[in-house]
Amino acid sequence: MDLKIAVLSGDGIGPEVILQAKKALSAIGVVYEHDFIFEDALIGAIAIDKTGSPLPEQTLNLCLNTDAVLFGAIGDPKYNSDSNIRPEQGLLRLRKELGLFANIRPLKPFKGLLDVSPLKREIVEGVDFVIFRELTAGIYFGKKKLNEAGTIASDLCEYTEDEITRIAHLAFQSAQKRRKKLTLVDMANVLETSRLWRKVVYKISADYPEVSLDFLLADNAAKQIISNPKQFDVVLTSNLFGDLLSDEASVITGSIGVLASASLGEKNALFEPVHGSYPHAKGRNIANPFASILSVAMMLEHFGLTEEAKKVCEGVEKAIEYNVVTIDLNPDSKFGTNEVGEFISNFILNKDDLMYF
Ligand code: IPM
Ligand code: MN
């Protein structure tokens, strides 16, 4: 298969972890005879520094005309909330322009990492759910206002029936292939948008009679997701709640450094680690590349390359088995971002010198 992939490494640890993801993808290309063509482009703080814009037109055009986008991380402390122009605006605009309305974040702890989580083993073992976060609407994209005196601010949270419908179908279809349970997380006791979500999702559930539908208020969901995460199969929620809950859920897996995600639209697809730019770790060879490498696995799966995706996941499992992990997973580890990435690409290439580690 030929795939043209836009690589947007972004800020902080982005370039370091994405380098390892590219290595894994190149190794897959060699072994399975695919032609993956990478094209690098600027986004985020580095793009502001070089071009004045967090999403240069060149980057946007490239992304609109590629098969997939591999995205690193965005954000730099030098652009704080007082700045008019911020790196995050680049990612938000990219999501909107590419129409990436569904952000899919799977949560399944690795067997070898069950004791890394601060949660008790009996809570973590057997957890397997996926969050469907709406990504191009809601409070992130509503009209923002600040009065002249700078004393009153507002962010509008708006959802249309169509915006809810399209992601709800994807979530139900996923539930159908999984354990057939969908939980809609909202604040229907307070918010009008949540009441619309409930109405629309309930209506759509008639098309999926074999999927059972539950409603859960977001405050309660925040508690349940770490006190009893095994109950979840597919969690469907709005942009803001999905962002909060997926960071919280990363505690189950032991590190946010292992969570991958896919953002899908009608035409485009973007794959990115859930973690941020982690500026303190930049350039120190300590960032966990698993999340980026697993995002590559999601990309392969998206294009129907199931065997290839499996191979990448096995590489990560092997690294865990050999304890070739970064310090977020093992504080005594002598391995860094590069070594972990190298181990996984060697595994994919079937090199037999893994014992070197
Ligand atoms: C994420 C990030 C982004 C978000 C930021 C960087 C805009 O936290 O992808 O989860 O909040 O959506
Ligand atoms: Mn987030």
Automatic annotation (TrEMBL):
The keyword Oxidoreductase applies. Binds 1 Mg(2+) or Mn(2+) ion per subunit. Its cofactor is Mg(2+); Mn(2+). One of its GO terms (molecular function) is 3-isopropylmalate dehydrogenase activity. Keywords: Amino-acid biosynthesis, Branched-chain amino acid biosynthesis, Leucine biosynthesis, Magnesium, Metal-binding, NAD, Oxidoreductase. Pathway: Amino-acid biosynthesis; L-leucine biosynthesis; L-leucine from 3-methyl-2-oxobutanoate: step 3/4. It catalyses: (2R,3S)-3-isopropylmalate + NAD(+) = 4-methyl-2-oxopentanoate + CO2 + NADH. InterPro entries: IsoCit/isopropylmalate_DH_CS, IsoPropMal-DH-like_dom, Isopropylmalate_DH. Residues 4-344 form the Isopropylmalate dehydrogenase-like domain. Its EC number is 1.1.1.85. Belongs to the isocitrate and isopropylmalate dehydrogenases family. LeuB type 1 subfamily. This is 3-isopropylmalate dehydrogenase. It comes from Flavobacterium flavipallidum.
